[in-house]
User: What shape does this take?
Amino acid sequence: MLGSFFAINAALFWAVAIILYKKSQGSFSPITLNIYKSIVALVLISVTMLLFNIPFFPDKPLKYWMMLSLSGFLGITLADIFFFIALDRLGAGLLAIVECLYLPSVLLFSFIFLGESLSPWGIAGSLLVFSAVIMGSLTKRKVAEETSSLSKETLWGLIAGILSILFLALGIVIVKEVLEQTDVFWATLVRVWAGVLSLGIIVLCHPGRGRYLAELKFSRAWLTALPASVAGNYIALVFWVAGMKYTTASRAAILNQMSTIFIFILAALFLKEKITLNRALAIGLAMTGACLTILG
Assistant: This one.
């Protein structure tokens, strides 16, 4: 029950964060926004650990440190860069449909790395989710009165969104067994540290590093992006890791997938994204696929 509570709240706060990130876009590039929100998370998690007297350097095997660091690189550095690219090109409503890939991705990687079984129901559910992604992308182009440039933009957004979900799912599944043996806040801190360090290396080696560093200077954009960073990369992130720790990967993924419903509703309410029949059907199709996977 505790794990389910954390997982469903992770979905809710992540949905809120996506809406807030969408509103704050335009001031930061995807890489810069990723660095900013990771630093916010790093500070808040560190303060929390100090308040609760959680050790920063517990006596844990080197393997734990390495696995959590790899998880941070995959799930924060790579996944979030692709996520912000997708959010910019697709919008929160369509991205919510793409995020339905999270559930079948977790189930697939859980089968590969944890030995959890993937039933025929799970396979059928995955196919439904992929069908929903296709339906959602066609809806987006239709609503926007498709042009060749927009079609290309949407395609790249879909590719970025799919890569983001795959890296996110892989990053958390590979540390499932480590999470069961470690403190949630410490494990989250190591993942975020790995993400910040790898992002820093990417920026320093990037030919456009001057622009990225300039974007990190204090501005009003910081204040706009701050609530999204707190909701998505502190509260939701900690809940997400806790949900994965205290329940099975499959059940956590099912409840995490509720973010799709939350995002769809919030995007309609606050971003005024169009509620079309095809998009509503795509959401229903995707969530049906998500439900089918749990039957196995």
Observations:
- Residues 2-294 form one domain.
- Residues 179 and 245 are 5 Å apart (CA to CA).
- The radius of gyration is 18 Å.
- The mean pLDDT is 83.
